Amino acid sequence: MGRPPCCDKVGVKKGPWTPEEDLMLVSYVQEHGPGNWRAVPTNTGLMRCSKSCRLRWTNYLRPGIKRGNFTDQEEKLIIHLQALLGNRWAAIASYLPERTDNDIKNYWNTHLKKKLKKMQAGEGDGGEDGGAGASEAGAGAAAGGGGKRPSVPKGQWERRLQTDIHTARQALRDALSLEPSSAPLAKLAAAPQPTPPGSTTYASSAENIARLLEGWLRPGPGGSGGGGKGPEASGSTSTTATTQQRPQCSGEGAASASASHSSGAAANTAAQTPECSTETSKVAAAAGSAPAFSMLESWLLDDGMGHGEVGLMTDVVPLGDPSEFF
DNA sequence: AACTGACCCAACCGCAGGTAG
DNA sequence: ACTACCTGCGGTTGGGTCAGT
After folding, report:
1. Spatial distance from the CA of A230 to the C1' of C18 (Å)
2. What element of type H or E holds A200?
3. Which nucleotide is nearest to A238 (CA to C1')?
4. Which 276-315 residues of chain A approach strand B with CB closer than 7 Å?
5. Is A288 helix (H, G, I), strand (E, B) or coil?
6. H-helix segments, A94-202
7. Residue with CA nearest to B16's C1' atom
8. What pLDDT, in 10s, does the model give residues A197-236?
């Protein structure tokens, strides 16, 4: 039978989140930890459906999310992974711990798809969609199924997962090998990005909230009118935010950030993020992206290469020289 | 200065898988 | 074994912003 709606359509607020709502959500998650989303709206009084709460948290409020411009390296990695895994954004995102699947998806749809198409056109009419689209199908093939989650009998699931992992590792290896200086991701991540100040922000929830509140409480020019979608929500976090590459979970960063904004709730809640202990090697990753990248890198490179699994790897047909893309 | 279209991103929607009862 | 519920995922959309005219 059809599933019931995840939440009643009546009385459920939709649209952009307000800073107040963010605060409520963050406070709740800090206290209870992420999960049990069903209970969030009732326990917090938020007029949002559970799904919306979860999405808001995972895509925006969760500590350790890196916002802003994608680096070349990230871009290449995404292209490779997309080619290999297809539109399995969650899987791809797992290789970019600081990026959300939604972010990657958006970036792919808005930038990379176009970019690749352009390349294709430049190379001469290849098949429509060529690199991207074709790879989408091909990716599925490489991964053992379709681009979209194919219905794979359970017995094959494991093997497929394994294949996915190997293909992804290969992708990363390829991407890494692009770096002329052979500087691995760690180096790249550690080095200050040449992006303009504020373009790349590691947003802790507290910082987010603080910024949001700041904008919210101080009606900006042109009448903020309120919406979360206003300059505060998107602008401040992605483009106009000040560069704050500081540790997420140290407590110090978050606390100090919000302390200056007198948003006590955010301050003390963020300082003791449960995320820090559980979900996050990812967050630790954000804390200093370098360690995370190097961990990822070493995992990808050490493992797989040294083991008998290489056999599987050899089945993977690597893409053409990725540098062709650029 | 006003208008228009393209771009971008946060959020929504519906489906599928997993799991507890 | 079955059902209902919860969560995760990918596709799509709404609307704000920006750049060009």
Report:
1. 14
2. strand A200-203
3. B9
4. none
5. coil
6. 101-107, 113-123, 130-143, 154-178, 185-190
7. A149
8. 333 333 344 555 555 455 444 443 333 333 333 333 333 3
Among A169, A192, A189, which residue's Cα sits nearest to residue A179?
Answer: A189
The spacing between the Cα labelled CA in A25 and the C1' in B21, in angstroms, equals 29
Distance in Å, residue A186 CA to nucleotide C8 C1'? 29
Nucleotide nearest A114, CA–C1', reads B7
pLDDT band (50, 70, 90) for residue A21: confident
CA angle A249–A254–A260, rounded 5-degree value: 170
Q: Is the CB of A4 under 7 A from strand B?
A: no
Q: Looking at the DSSP assignment, which residues form a beta bridge with residue A28?
A: none
The three-state DSSP-derived secondary structure of A62-82 is CCCEEEECCCHHHHHHHHHHH
- The distance (Å) linking the CA of A203 with the C1' of B19 is 33
CB A120 within 8 A of CB A126: yes
A202 CB contact with strand B at below 7 Å: no
Nucleic strand B near CB of residue A11 (< 7 Å):
no
Rounded CA–C1' distance between A153 and C14, in angstroms: 38
Contact A6, A51 (CB under 8 A): yes
Q: Are A206 and A255 in contact (CB under 8 A)?
A: yes
> How much is the pTM?
0.58
| pLDDT of A29 higher than 70 | yes
Alpha helices (H) along chain A: 19-32, 39-44, 50-56, 72-85, 89-93, 101-107, 113-123, 130-143, 154-178, 185-190, 205-217, 252-259, 264-271, 274-277, 281-287, 289-302, 310-315
Which residues have CB under 8 Å from A109's CB, separation 6+? none
Q: Is the CB of A67 under 7 A from strand B?
A: yes
Q: How far apart are the first and last CA of chain A?
A: 49
Helix (H, G, I), strand (E, B) or coil at A203: strand
